[in-house]
Structures are given as C-alpha cells and as structure tokens.
Amino acid sequence: MRGRLVLAGRLITTDLRRWPLPAVLFVLVVGAATASLAAGMALGETTRADYAATRAATNGPDLMILTADQLPVERAALRSIARRDGVTGHVGPYRLLRGATLTAHGHRMTATVEGRSTAPSAVDQPRVTSGHWLRPGGAVLERGFAAALHVRVGERVTLAGRTFPVVGIAVTTATGIYPNAGLDVGPNDYAGLVWLTDADTRRSTRPELRPGYAMGLTLADPDVKAFQNTIRPALRANPDVRVNTRGRRTTEDSSNRVLANSEAVLQIGGWLMAIAGLAGLVSLSTLRSDQQLRRAGQLKAAGATPGLIGTVLLAQYVLLALGAAALGLLAAWSMVSAAGHPSDSLLHAPVSVGAGTAVPVCVLALLIALLTSAGPAIRVARTPTVAALAGRGGRGPTHPAGLTGLVGALPVPLMLGLRLAARRLRRAVLTAAGVAAVAAVIAGLLCWHAQPQAGALSVRATHTYHAILAITVALVALAALDAVVIVWSTALDARRSLAVARAFGATPAQVTAALVLAPLPAAAAGAAVGMPTGLGLYWLVSSAGARMDATPPTWWLLAGGAAIVLGVAALGTIPARLDARRPVTPILDAETR
C-alpha cells in the first residue's frame, strides 16, 4: 500500500511538472470561484461580529422606546416602564429632535438630535472613536453620519440654525447604522444621528422640528418580544401616550440588511464563475488526457492497473482543487477584512472564516474537479493497452446524422465551422453554459443601471453595485480566457481533419474563419438564455424585494448579448490564426506513421 502511494505521488508530481500551465489555470479559475463564494458567505458573519463588538463596547440596550411628542404623560409612562420587574438598567428618558437640518461642507442632511448628559451612562453609552464625549456648546456625530459628510473632529457644523464645533465622533447600537439611524415613531426617516447636551437640545428646539423622548432598557429576560407584549396594554390604555418600541434584534437586522444583497451577489457569482470556467477546464483536461494516453499505455504494459491510473489522474485534480479552495478562503478573508465592513457606524471586529464557510467552498472546488477530470480520467483508464501505446483513445468525433449533406452546399468556412461545432457536443453545451453565466451577470449590471436609485438606499445600493461590478469583471476575464482556450483546444483536437481539408484546397484564412465560427452557435444560445436568467437573478437579490422598479430596455439586452458573441469571435481569432499557419505536411506525416 505504501509503495502504491509513493508511486502515485511521484506520478502526480511528474504530471504537474510536465504540464504546469493547465494546473495553474485550474487553480486560478477554481480559486476565483471559491473566493467569491467564501466572501459572500463571510460577509454576513462579519456584519454580525461588528454589531456584537459595538454592542459590547457601548453596552447597547435590549429595547428602545420612543415617544411621538414631549408630553409630561409620555415621560411619566417611560419612567414607569423603567421601574418594571425585569428591567436591569436604563438610560433616559432623554429629549429627541427629529427632522433637524445639518449643514457641513455645503451639504444639507436630515439629522435626529439626542439630548444627552455629559456624564457617561450605564446603558447605551456611545463609544467615542475620535475626540471626546459631550461638552456644553459642542456636538458629537455618529461615525457613519460623519463619514458620509466627510466631517472630522474640530470642524464646525450648522444644526437647526446654530453652529456647533464637532468635539467627538462615536458609535452606538441604539439605532441602525447610517442611513437607517433615525429615531422616529413612524417609518424610519433615514436621518443621521447627532448628540448634544440636554441644555443645547432645548435651546435648539424649533416649531418645525418633531420633538420626542427616547429611553433605552436592558432586560433580564433575553426574550424582548415578551416584554414588549407585557407593556403594550398599559401604553395603549392612555390615548395621549403614543410610543414605538424597537428591539435589538430589529436594529441588528437593519444593520445586516446593508450587505444582504452583496452576500447574495457574491455567492451566486461564485457558482456562475464555476459554471463559466468549466468549459475551458474540461477542454484543457481533455487535451491533457489525450497527451497522457501513451504514458498510461506504458504504465499498463509495466503492470499498472486501470484503477491506479484513474486514481492518479483524479487525485491530481482533487489536490489542486483543495489547494485552490485554500487560496480562495485566504483571498476571501483578505477581501472581507479590507472591504467587508458595511458601515463606519459599527466598530470593525476581526474577520474569521469558519467551518460553515470552508465546507461549502471545499465542496464547490471538489465538484469542479470531478466534473473536469472524471470523464477524461475514466476514458484513459479504460483504453486498451495497445490503443493507448498508439495514442488512440477510441474517442472519435461524432456528427449528427445528415449533417454532411446539410452543410455541404455552404461556404467552406461555415461548413467547416458547423462540423467543428457538432464534433464535440459536450464542449458546445459547456460553452453555452459558460456564456450564459457571463450574460446573466451582465444583464444584472444593466438592470441595476436601469433602476431609479433612492438616495436613502445609497449605502446599500453602492455595496451591491460594487459586488455586481466585481463579479462582472471577474466573469468577463474568465470568459475571455475560456474563449481562447476553447478555440485553441478545438484547433488541436481537429488539427488532423483540418490539415486534410487544407490538403484538398482549404486556405489558412478559411480554416481560421472556421475555428472562429465553431463556438459562435453555442455562444449565441448561451447569450439568449443568460440575459433573461440575469433579470431573474437580479429580481432575487433586488432591494425592491418581490418587484423591480424598472427593467432595462430591450435594445440594451440585445446589444449586450451581441457584444458577448462578438467578443468570443474576436478572442478566438488569436489562437485560430496561430494554429492555421502550421504547415500541413508534418501533421499528415505524423498521421500516417
């Protein structure tokens, strides 16, 4: 057993040294797909970790209670709730001013003002990340809001007609992250958050501003909904008391939703890259198996079993897949660490990639390895020894019945191209699937540009756009590589038949055109399927939920599909022209030997 393992290890090492380029391309494609999938899965965990770290640093409340006005009866109702059993701590009631206008650097933004004490509170004490906490006449800005305004400590802002120096920048989990940080009784007002002293808040009151009170509670029972149900009857008993309650789970979910679309885009993108890369990888694997036939015959002649040969061929792809998965996880960790934090409204916790992410990533990598290598490995292992020594694998090309008679009257390039397209139907199907994956993500990008983007969703939309753009760039680069590899492998696979065609009068230009035309039917079919598929995928991850506000014009989709097909043709010209220039005589001589 040990001897077989040593032999298999040496054979695998020799194979990788002899054909390094296919191995490198395999690792790059699988690594890109697994990195995208891992990044999408890690984003959600990162957001939750950021929220947990910020909540711990600020002793965030379990429940926020907000009033619609500043009536004495509302303040009394909040104080009575603070004295209930099960309340372990509270902050407030403190004053709120909603709908205030804040001006900084020429930008006018809506803000909610909290009137807080200069002394630290036991519950919901914002964590100052720059400058210091409140002082009379100074303002502290929530960090996500300050980042959106490009405001730093020491600068001055105008709030509700008064000018304040910014003495600090802080974070909190009492509200959602900016732009969902408003404290309103009704729908969220997408306002930023500013802290002033209670005295400055009273002096900033204006008739147009909506006043209110807020109070934060920590509870002994983690079931916040049960406490909300307990206090609701008492609050409803007095019609003058209008309040809204917001549990920490609601606040956390609003933070997680900022990257929800990006998570879905990256995860879907990982699978699309795997689909797009299969066509090129299978073509490379098939070429390698053709080159390995004689070696397999020599091993069989020396006593090696078909099982050993098949195991060696499969094992090298499995090892490469696991290595690519490890690189993908490392790349995902680096990307999420650098750009995976949704907002400056939260502290940045260390990024970790756990087993919940690693296992699906490894499964994807192994699935690509099996789909790439299983067929060629089994074919090589089953090839009889004599046929393998002669370099003939018994895998002759197939043409649909009647194809010759159908294309015989066509121009030579088109006739040869259609025969090449029908020669390997599996390659055509994989090519169509790869182009469909690229067309889907391009359709998603076009659909994003067709949407009327709401300013309140700008942060979420920006993250989503960056994710779609990154996946689009990666898939286009992968498709370009696939186009070159597929035409190159088609040329190598059909080199003898094309040499015969040239011997009977076909010119190098006609052969070049035939190689370029061969993948175009599959590419056109893939684009036709991929464009509507992309609209459906965008609908799944759309911030509009079950609807899309707009769809891209039809001519956008047609132009995108046409550009993909033309791009495949243009990239295929490079290997086609290089191969068509080879002399015919050496190829035919090798065939007759």
TrEMBL record:
Coiled coil: none annotated. Keywords: Cell membrane, Membrane, Transmembrane, Transmembrane helix. The chain crosses the membrane at residues 21-43, 264-287, 308-333, 353-372, 428-451, 463-492, 513-541, 553-574. Residues 24-221 form the MacB-like periplasmic core domain. The keyword Transmembrane helix applies. GO terms for molecular function: transmembrane transporter activity. This is ABC transport system permease protein. It comes from Actinocatenispora sera. The lineage of its organism: Bacteria, Bacillati, Actinomycetota, Actinomycetes, Micromonosporales.
